[in-house]
Write the structure tokens for this entry.
Amino acid sequence: MAADQTILLIEDDREISSTISGVLTAAGYKVLTAPNGIEGQRVIENESPDLVITDMMMPRMGGFPILEFLKTIEQPPRVIMITANEGGRHKAYAEMLGVDDYLRKPFAMDLLLESVARSLAKAAESRKGKKPANKKSP
């Protein structure tokens, strides 16, 4: 099912972007990348990805304006925010703006893949018009 799901990665650090993109591609996802929020916003408008993974702090436009932009879209993609920022207020603001997950760098790639799978499952459920089932993890 991953092959028909598109993920947009908005990350200004080339090494991090390349690593995450490679892991997601190897997991079977179609991955688009953008080096900042301005380019990311353009990709969102043109490609309608299922999931956006965005860094918080980037030149030109960071992650929070992206989250605010997504609030204006009728059917916005799910969002995972990644950041090296330790501040609790940033996490609270990101959650208020609707992120599915908030991962602090550095993080294990399997943690990211689990988060991606959860977010895409929620996206699939919402497209069907159903609420995600409350499944308890073992």
